[in-house]
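Input record (Table S2, row 800):
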Amino acid sequence: MVSAFSSLLFLFIIFAFILGEGLPLFYKVGAGKIIFGFTWAPTKGFFGIFPMIISSYMVTLGALIFGAPLALGCATYLSEYASRKMKMFLKPALELLAGIPSVVYGFLGVVYVVPLIREYLGGPGFSILATSVVLGIMILPTIISISFDSLMSVPQTYREASVAMGATKWQTIYKVVLPAAQSGILASFILGMGRAVGETMAVIMVAGNALRIPMSLLDPLRTLTSNIALELAYAAGDHRSALFSTGVVLLIIIMLLNFIANFWVKRKVAG
Amino acid sequence: MRLNPRFTDKFVRAALLFQALFTVSILVFIVFIVFVKGAANITPEFIFSYPEDMGRHGGIFPAIVGTVFLAVLSIALATPLGVGTAIYLTEYTKESTLTRIIRFGVESLAGIPSIIYGLFGFIFFVIKLKLGWSLISGTLTIMIMVLPTIIRTAEEAIKSVPRNLRMVSFSLGATKWETVTKVVLPSAAPGILTGIMLSVGRAVSETAAVIFTMGSSLRLPTSLLDSGRTMAVHFYILAREGISLEKAYATALVLVVSILLINIVAYYTMNKMIARYN
Amino acid sequence: MDVKVAIQQLRLSFGKKEVLKGIDLDIVKNRIYGLMGPSASGKSTLISVINKMISFEDGVTMSGSVLLDGEDIINGDIDEVSLRKRIGTVFATPTPLPRSIFENVAFGPRLNNSTSRAELHALVEQSLRKSFLWDEVKDRLQESAMKLSGGQQQRLCLARTLALNPEIILLDEPCSGLDPISTAKIEEALAELKDQHTIILVSNNTKQIARATDFVAFFYLGELIEFGATDKVFTTPAVRMTEEYIQGKFG
Ligand SMILES: Nc1ncnc2c1ncn2[C@@H]1O[C@H](COP(=O)(O)OP(=O)(O)OP(=O)(O)O)[C@@H](O)[C@H]1O
Ligand SMILES: [Mg+2]
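Output record (magnesium ion complex):
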C-alpha cells in the first residue's frame, strides 16, 4: 500500500524543488525587493513582480465578476426551472465544455474579443478586460456544474414547505434554496477563481504581457503564471531562479485561497 | 417602491432564462466556430502527414501520435497508483490523522496550477534527473498532475458500493483482497472510469505543464527520451506565433473532436457497464 | 447426538451496552433451529458471532466460548476466512452480486480455484436445484441476477451459499420481505437440506418457526428465555413470556 503515500511524496518533492529553486533568491536580493519591486529586468538584477501580483488579482477578480453571476443564473435556472429532459441534456453538455482546452478559449479571445475591444473601446485590445472576459467564460462550466449540484442537493421538502407557506417561486429560491446551497456555491466560486489564477497559456494569448501595473481596464498586463511561461524556456542562473520565486508567490496565493475557501465553507456548513 | 411579487417572479424567471441561454450560447458559439473554421481545412493528409515549415503546411501526424503516447502512458501510470491510494483510504484504514494527512496531500496536489507542474517537471525531470525534454519527463509530470482526479473519483466510486455486497462476499469466505478485487472494484468500475476519462481529457488538453517537460519538437517521438509535441502544444504555438490561422483552427477541431469522442465513449461504456447487471 | 455448535456462557457488549447476557445453547447436527424473539433481543448478533462477521464491528467485547466441533472459535486462533467457508449465511435482504446468475452461484467455489469448468457447472446446477430455483433460471443463467424477483433472488442467495457445501447454514430473517409462495419454497428447501447441513433460522414469524424448525430458542433482551423442541414449546411453553410472545401479545 505504498501507493497511498505517493501523493504525499509527490507533494513533498514538488514543494522541495520549487522552494529549493525559488527561495534562495529571496535571501539574496531580499523578499521585499521581489514582492514589492516594480521593475522586472532579471538579466540586470531587478526581480520585482509586484505588477504581476496585482495583475493576477485583477484578472481573477474580473473573471469572477464576469463569470459568477452568469454561471449562478444559469445553474439556478437549470435546477429550479428547467424540465428534467433539459437538465439531462444540458448538464453533460456543460461538462463536455469544461473539457475544451483552455488554449482554445485563449485563441478565440485573440480572434474575437481583443479586436472588438480595440475597435470599440480603444487601447491595444490585449487588456485586463479581454483577459477577464476570456477567463470568465472559461470558468463558466466549472461554476455552473458545481453550484448546480449543490442546488440540486437541497431537499425538495424545503421548497415545498416554503411554497406551502405562500412564498412565490422566486421568494423560495432567494430565501430558501440559495441559502441552503450557499456553501456549495461559494466553493464553486473559489474553484473557479483557482482555475483563473492558475491559467497560463490562454492568458498569455490575450493579456499583452506588458511589464507594468495596469491603470485601466484597457491596459495590457502580465500575470504571475504568464511570467513563468514566457521566460522559462530560455532563462538561466538568477533569471531562472526568479521564475521559481514567481512560482513560490503563486503557490502562496493559491494556498491562501484554498485556506480561505476551506475555512469559509466549513464554517458556513457548521453554522 | 414595492413590486408586485407575481410580477417579480415572472421577471426573474425571464432574467434567469436569458442568463442561461446567453451562457449556453457563448459556449455553443465557441464549439460552432471551431467546427466551421476548422472543418474547411481538415483533410486526410492533415491527419496523416508530417508538418512542413513549422506547421504552416502539411499535417499534424506527429502531434497526434505525441498526444496519444503522452495520454496513454501517463494515465497507465496514474491509474494503478490512484486506484491503489483510493483502495487504501477506503478499505484498509479507519479515518485517522494519517488518512487526513493523505487526503490533505491529495487536495493540495489538486489545487496546484498546471504551470507549477510545468516548473517542477522542468527542474526535476528535465534538469535534475537529466531526462531532457522528453516523452518520459512529460509523462511523469502529467501522471502526478492527474493523480488527484483519479484518487478522488475512485474514492467516491468505492465508497458508494453498498456495504451489503462486501458483507456477502466476506460471508462466502472471501478475503479482504478478494472482496476488493472481485466485488468492490467491479461495482465501482463505472465511477473509476469516469475519473480516468477526465484525466485523459486533461492530459490531452494540457499545454503549460507539457511544453516545459516534453518540449515541442515537431518530429515523431520514437523513444521515451524523444521530445515531441501534443496537439494542444502544437495549436498553442501555431496560434501564438501566428504561423497559420487555418492550421490552428484545424488543429483545434481535431483536439476538440478528440475530447468529445473520449467523453462520449466513456459515457457509453459507463452506461453499458451499469446497464449490464442492474 | 452430535453437538455441532456449543455456545457456553456467551456474553457480548457493544461498548457499554450488553447485548448477549450469558447464552448457553447446544446446536445438534442435522437439525433446524429457530431463533425468535422481539426486536433487539440479540438474534442477529448471535448469528454474527457464529460466522464471525462480528469482527467487522468496532468496540465489541466478548466472553464465554463458542465451540464448533469442539474448537473454540472465539478464543482460539481460528482462520476466519476458512471458517466462513464452512458456515454459510443468508441475510435478510436478498443481496445478489451485480453479476450473472451463474457467476453469483460460482462466486464461492471460484475463490478456491480448484474446481474445473465441468465440475463448476455441475455444482451450480446442483445448488440451484437444492434451492428450488433451477427450473426457473436454467435457460437464463447468463442474465443479470438483478433481474430476478425478490423471492428468486433470495433463493439464489441460498444456492450461492450451498455451492460451498457449508456445514452450517445461518439464515437471518430470510423471508421477511417475501411473499408466501417464495417463503414456502424456501421452507421446503430447508426441510430437504437438513440431512446434510445444520441450519439456524432467525425469524420473527412464529408460524414459520412452528412449521419449519425442530428446536426453538426464544430470546428477550439478550437473554435466552426458553429453549426446547418446537412442538413442545409451541404447545406447552414453560415460561409465561414465551407464551405471550407466541400468541402475539408483544414484540
Ligand atoms: N454494530 C452495533 N453497534 C452497537 N449496537 C449494536 C450493533 N448491532 C446491534 N446492536 C445492538 O444490539 C442489540 C441487539 O441487536 P440485534 O440486531 O442482534 O437484535 P435482533 O434480535 O436481531 O433484532 P431484530 O429482530 O430487530 O433484527 C440491539 O439493542 C442493537 O441496538
Ligand atoms: Mg436481526
